Amino acid sequence: MLRNKKVNILIAFVAALALWIYVTGKIEINSMKKFSDVKISIVNQNSLIESGYAVEKIEPGKIDVTLKGGRAALNSAKGSDIKATVDVYSRFKGKNNVNVDVEVPKNTRLESKSEDKVTVEIGNLVTAERNIEVHEKESLPEKTVLVKSKPDPEKVKIYGTKKNVARVVSVRALVDTSKVTEKDTEVSAKLVPVDKSGNVVDFVSVASDEINITVRLEAYKTVKLNAKTKGSIDDKYQLDSIKSPEKIDIQGPAGTIKGITEVESEDIDISKIRESTKIKMVLRLPEGVKIKEGSEEPFLNVTIKRNNAKTFKFDISDVNIENLDENLSLNKGRGEITVVVRSKNNGKVDLEKSDIKLYGDGRNFKRGSNTVTLYTNKDDEYIVEIIPKTLTINVK
Q1: What is the largest CA-CA distance in the chain?
Q2: 0.70 cut: is pTM over it?
Q3: Please, which residues have CB within 8 angstroms of residue 380's CB and are 6 or more apart in sequence?
Q4: 117-124 and 62-70: which strand pairing?
Q5: Cα gap 194→173, rounded to integer Å
Q6: Is the pLDDT reported for residue 26 higher than 60?
Q7: Cα 9 to Cα 389: distance, rounded to the nearest angstrom
Q8: How many Cβ atoms from other residues are within 10 Å of residue 395's Cβ?
Q9: Stretch 259-273: mean pLDDT, rounded?
Q10: What is the mean pLDDT of residues 56-71?
Q11: Per-residue pLDDT, 354
C-alpha cells in the first residue's frame, strides 16, 4: 500500500514537470530590460540644409530606454537595435523642443524613455571641403595591410554649422574588408567626417554618402636589413660610428615575400662624407615588394670626427734632397710649404717643427727642371698632408 502511494506521488511529479515544461515553452512570460545611452539621430536634416541651416547640437544627445517583452526577445535585443530620432523638418534657427521618437526591435514594445522631448539647437549653415582618407572599417587579417587606390575625387564637400565643420579634419572612406582579397577589387566605402582623434563628428553632412575605391590585401613581414657601403672615410677624419636599422617591415604578395628573410641596400659611398650625416637607404627589393606602408624610411647614420691636427710652415730651402749625384747642384728657389700632421687615433699631436724633416729623392735628377715628391720622417706615425706635395727644382 505504501509502495503504491510513493509510485503515485512520483507519477504526479513527473506529470507536473512535463506540464510546466510544455507551458513555459509555449507561453512567453513578459519581462523588462533597460538600455542606457541610446544615441539620438536626426531625421530630415536635408530640409534644414536646403533652408541654409544645420543642427548645432542636441541636449541631451542620449536617452535611456526600457523595453518590455518575452525573455528570448529581450535577451537578443541590443542597444544598437533601438532607433531614437528627432524630426527637424520645418524647424527654425535657435533652440527647438522636439519630440523623441523611439523604434524598438521586433517582439518588444516601449515601456518608457527617459526623455519625451529634447532641445535641438539650430544654427547657420556653412560649407567646406576636406580630403578623403581611405581606412579599413574592421580589423584586417593578421600580418596583412590594405593597399588602396587614390580616392577620386580626393576632396568632398561637407555641411554643418561653423563650429562643427571646424572640428572635421578629414572625411574617412570606410572599407568593408570582409570583401577584400589579394586581387584588385572595387568596393563602395561609406564616407564619414572625423576629428583629429578619428572620432565621427555629429551633425555634419557629407555631399556623397559613399565612394568607389579599388583595394587589395598584401602580406607583410619583418626581415633582416643589411646596409652595404663602399669607399672609406678620408684620412683627415675618423669614423666614430656607422649605424642602420637591423630589421625592416616589407609588404607584397604573400607568395613573393614568403621566401624573403633579408634585404640589402644599394651601395652607399661614404668616401665623400666630411661631417656626421644621415643617408637615405635605397633597398634592393623584388618586383612588387616595397617597404610596409606606415613604416619609417631606413637611413644610414654616419658619425665622424676630424682628427686632431697641427700645422707647421717650412721654406723650400728646408727640404733635403737625398741621393743626389755629387756633380749636380740645386737651385731650389724660394717658397712656403705647409705640413699638416694629424693623429691616426684622434689623439694629441705631440710634435714641434724641429721634429719634422722634409725630404725628397733626387737619384733620377738631370740637368734642367725636375719634379720631386716630398715626404716627412713622420709619415708612418701620423697622417701627414704636405701642401704642395711636389716641387719643381732646377738642377745645374
Answers
A1: 156
A2: no
A3: none
A4: unpaired
A5: 10
A6: no
A7: 124
A8: 17
A9: 93
A10: 93
A11: 92
Positive or negative: CA dihedral 104, 109, 114, 117: positive
Locus of grid cell 672609406: 232
Please list, in sequence order, all residues whose beta carbon lies within 8 angstroms of the beta carbon of residue 275, skipping any fewer than 6 positions away. Answer: 304
Rounded mean pLDDT, 108-126: 94
Three-state secondary structure readout of the chain: CHHHHHHHHHHHHHHHHHHHHHHHHHCCCEEEEEEEEEEEEEECHHHHHHCCEEEEEEECCEEEEEEEEEHHHHHHCCHHHCEEEEECCCCCCEEEEEECEEECCCCEEEEEECCCEEEEEEEECEEEEEEEEEEECCCCCCCEEEEECCCCCCEEEEEECHHHHHHCCEEEEEECHHHCCCCCEEEEEEEEEECCCCCECCCCEECCCEEEEEEEEEEEEEEEEECCEECCCCCCEEEEEEECCCEEEEEECHHHHCCCCEEEECCEECCCCCCCEEEECCEECCCCCEECCCCCCCEEEEEEEECCEEEEEEEHHHCEEECCCCCCCEECCCCEEEEEEECCCCCCCCCCHHHCCEEEECCCCCCEEEEEECEECCCCCCEEEEECCEEEEEEC
Residue type, 236: K
What is d(CA 191, CA 213) in angstroms, rounded to the nearest whole number?
11
- What pLDDT, on a 0 to 100 scale, did the predictor assign at position 25? 47
**pLDDT score of 22 more than 60:** no
- Confidence band, pLDDT 50/70/90 cuts, at residue 7: low
Residue 318: CB atoms within 10 A of its CB come to 15
Instruction: Please name the residue that has the C-alpha cell 523588462.
Output: 32
**In the prediction, which pLDDT does 163 show?**
96
Q: How far apart are CA 100 and CA 86, in angstroms?
A: 5
Residue 310 and residue 340 in contact, taking contact as beta carbons nearer than 8 Å = yes
| Cβ-based neighbours of 280, under 8 Å, separated by 6 or more | 297, 298, 299
Dist CA 66 CA 114 (whole Å): 9
User: How many C-beta atoms surround the C-beta of residue 261 within 10 A?
Assistant: 9
Residue 259 pLDDT exceeds 60: yes
Q: What percent of the chain has pLDDT over 90?
A: 60
Here the cell at position 370 is: 725636375
Express as a percent the part of the chain with pLDDT over 70: 93
